[in-house]
Amino acid sequence: MSRLTRRQAVGAVTGAAAGLALAGVATASADDTTPAKNPAKNKGEAAKPKGAGELAPFDEVFQGRRIQGMPADDAAAHAHGHGGHTNGYRVLIDGRELQVMKHGKSGWSSPINHYVRFETPLDAARTAVTSLKGAVVVPFDPTA
Amino acid sequence: MTIRKNQANLTAAEKKAFVDAVLEVKRRGVYDEFVAAHRLRFALDMNTGVYVGHFGPSFLPWHRKFLIDFEKELQKVNWSVSIPYWDWTADNTVASSIWAPDFLGGTGRALDDQVMDGPFAYSAGNWPINIQVDSRPFLARNLAYRVPSLPTRAEVDAALAIPTYDSAPFRDGSAGFRARLEGADGYLSMHNRVHSWVWGQMESSVSPNDPVFWLHHAFVDKLWVDWHKLHPTSAEYLPAGATADVIDLNETMPPWTSTTPQNMLDHTQFYTYA
Questions:
Q1: Contacts of B108 (CB under 8 A, 6+ apart)
Q2: Local structure of residue B85 (DSSP, 8 states)
Q3: Each residue's pLDDT expressed in tens, for chain B with a length of 274 residues
Q4: Domain map of chain B by residue range?
């Protein structure tokens, strides 16, 4: 399974992915985790931080992509003046913003996975990585 | 009169006529306006928390109007074309004919989920993905990856048996037919599950990039019709009025300027289901 993961990561670079994915792929070669076909891991259930709360910051490499999450106040320093709706939390995939939205008790969503709800922004980020297969997020801000 | 048919019953000529009309609407640049409208609606709903297109009662009339508008564009190309519906309770495998190269094409390749066959394959040159939330320029699918199965007929029947259209608070988890059918009372179910089953763009806010979007939503719309036949004395739409942050029966559904759920209740003035 880990070989397959690596092949997918390499394929992402030779395929449609931009250079942004490249930095993550080097990490993926040394990373034997996160087989793409493991639904539990895709949903982030396997490695959920315990007791940290859904708004805990995170910074990890998942399937070769760097995913970061932080409460929006902290994120402002990284945001380069982006004025979009933050909903109190900011998620980045290889430095690009993945908009996440909280919907009351039903959980979080992102534009990449819009028909589901996630318990945490980390779950939303990991599933988006699984969806993208090396492609990069293109932020869409209707108020911009 | 527009008659929407089960896609499984279409002749080869009917499939070709539909595909050709879709490709022509795309070539004219009009198709992408629909994708952009869906992306915008979803983003605004998410940002404002006023759920117009999804996760609220107007999910069904909003998409009914969306499909009517799209069907009109198809018919400008070919008057005989209508939107077929995909009964995903019956045609529920990756081997179903809907995914054949003579119709919508199949699942994506492992490398990047790119659809490689059929009229909407990137290599065919007629289906660039222009309205995006990610950098993929090609139609992507990974059928049965995220969830292994599609909703069953028993699940549909259970939804149809619910006598109430929707109920307070008229949002994600509301009790009633609408939320059950949408799959918003337990995610990865029903309408939402079908989007996730197809994966690729269908899972995202630019889901109309996949032509199966229209066939999926035609079936969802047909189920609203079927539900009303089963419950003729139930209000076909709720809430009737005075509900904050919810589209009431006689309130306008953006982006349209004069379309209300009430305007959408009699579908037979626009089409019927075979």
A1: B114, B115, B116, B139, B140, B141, B142, B199, B200
A2: B
A3: 899 999 999 999 999 999 999 999 999 999 999 999 999 998 888 878 788 998 899 999 999 999 999 999 999 999 999 999 999 999 999 999 999 999 999 999 999 999 999 999 999 999 999 999 999 999 999 999 999 999 999 999 999 999 999 999 998 888 999 999 999 766 789 999 999 999 999 999 999 999 999 999 999 999 999 999 999 999 999 999 889 899 999 999 999 999 999 999 999 999 999 9
A4: 3-273
Nearest C-alpha in B relative to A119: B187
For residue B47, the chain A residues in CB contact (below 8 A) are 85, 101, 142-143
Assign a CATH topology to domain B3-273: di-copper center containing domain from catechol oxidase (1.10.1280)
Is A131:B203 a contact under the CB 8 Å cutoff?
yes
Where in chain B does DSSP place strands (E)? 3-4, 272-273
Ranges of H-type helices in B28-140: 30-48, 59-77
Looking at CA atoms only, how far is residue B4 from chain A in angstroms?
26
A85: nearest CA in chain B? B47
Tell me how far apart the alpha carbons of residues B272 and B2 are, in angstroms, rounded to a whole number.
6
Main-chain dihedrals φ then ψ at residue B54, nearest 5 degrees:
-145, 155
**DSSP labels for A63-74?**
TTEEEEEEEHHH
Select the residue of B173, B203, B206 nearest A131 (Cβ to Cβ).
Answer: B203
Inter-CA distances, A125 with A69, A100, A131, B252, Å:
8, 9, 10, 35
**CA dist., res. B246 & res. B267, Å (int):** 22
Quick one: tokens of B194?
């079908």
8 Å CB contact between B210 and B203: no
**Domain map (residue ranges) of chain A:** 2-132
Q: Are B127 and B26 in contact (CB under 8 A)?
A: yes
Q: For residue B51, how far is the Cα from the chain centroid?
A: 16
Chosen for mutation from A94, A115, A119 (greatest number of chain B CBs closer than 10 Å) is A115
Complex prediction ipTM: 0.92
Domain A2-132: assigned CATH number: 3.30.1880.10
- Burial-class residue B241 by CB neighbours within 10 Å (0-12, 13-18, 19+): exposed
Please state the length of chain B.
Answer: 274
